[in-house]
Amino acid sequence: MESNNNNLNLDMEKDQETTFDYSKRAQWLRAAVLGANDGLVSTASLMMGIGAVKQDVRIMLLTGFAGLVAGACSMAIGEFISVYSQYDIEVAQMKRESGGDTKKEKLPSPTQAAIASALAFSLGAIVPLLAAAFVKEYKVRIGVIVAAVTLALVMFGWLRAVLGKAPVVKSLVRVLIGGWLAMAITFGFTKLVGSHGL
């Protein structure tokens, strides 16, 4: 009877570890998808904004590239600081609970989190850059960027829905409307400001 109880306890512990590992993985995947989505929308919006006042492909690509680098650095630094703060709190908690003994290998790595965040942002940001890179004609280029971003938004929206176990259609609609609004607002306001000679 006691051995059955021990086996039951071991099985429950394994289930808890599996659930914990899965939730940790899902959390990292969600963060990666959100980072890629941020890179996609912010870089595309920057390119659309500059495209509203300058039709030159080189200027649009340089603006997008600057957005990619600045955004990836910002995401990496923000993630590093955030995860390091969490790391410090968890180390202090482990020391209190175990009398100074800590198992740091189980804690999140601020450096890995920063690199992952920068890579995810860059992955999203590269989509509008590649879409615009080979199209000389201004109106066609704008259309290609919108189409490529829409396709990527659909993919990211689907991934978010699957990872978050949310309704797929609602997730897609939210992501698409958000991305389109960001590009349209940036284009519109930049056009408005640019037409007044600033």
UniProtKB/TrEMBL annotation:
<dbReference type="Pfam" id="PF01988">
    <property type="entry name" value="VIT1"/>
</dbReference>
<comment type="function">
    <text>Vacuolar Fe(2+) uptake transporter.</text>
</comment>
<dbReference type="GO" id="GO:0140315">
    <property type="term" value="F:iron ion sequestering activity"/>
</dbReference>
<keyword id="KW-0812">Transmembrane</keyword>
<keyword id="KW-0406">Ion transport</keyword>
<feature type="transmembrane region" description="Helical">
    <location>
        <begin position="175"/>
        <end position="194"/>
    </location>
</feature>
<feature type="transmembrane region" description="Helical">
    <location>
        <begin position="59"/>
        <end position="77"/>
    </location>
</feature>
<dbReference type="InterPro" id="IPR008217">
    <property type="entry name" value="Ccc1_fam"/>
</dbReference>
<feature type="transmembrane region" description="Helical">
    <location>
        <begin position="113"/>
        <end position="135"/>
    </location>
</feature>
<keyword id="KW-0408">Iron</keyword>
<keyword id="KW-1133">Transmembrane helix</keyword>
<protein>
    <recommendedName>
        <fullName>Vacuolar iron transporter</fullName>
    </recommendedName>
</protein>
<dbReference type="GO" id="GO:0005774">
    <property type="term" value="C:vacuolar membrane"/>
</dbReference>
<feature type="transmembrane region" description="Helical">
    <location>
        <begin position="28"/>
        <end position="47"/>
    </location>
</feature>
<keyword id="KW-0926">Vacuole</keyword>
<dbReference type="GO" id="GO:0005381">
    <property type="term" value="F:iron ion transmembrane transporter activity"/>
</dbReference>
<feature type="transmembrane region" description="Helical">
    <location>
        <begin position="142"/>
        <end position="163"/>
    </location>
</feature>
<keyword id="KW-0813">Transport</keyword>
<keyword id="KW-0472">Membrane</keyword>
<comment type="similarity">
    <text>Belongs to the CCC1 family.</text>
</comment>
<dbReference type="GO" id="GO:0005384">
    <property type="term" value="F:manganese ion transmembrane transporter activity"/>
</dbReference>
<dbReference type="GO" id="GO:0030026">
    <property type="term" value="P:intracellular manganese ion homeostasis"/>
</dbReference>
<keyword id="KW-0410">Iron transport</keyword>
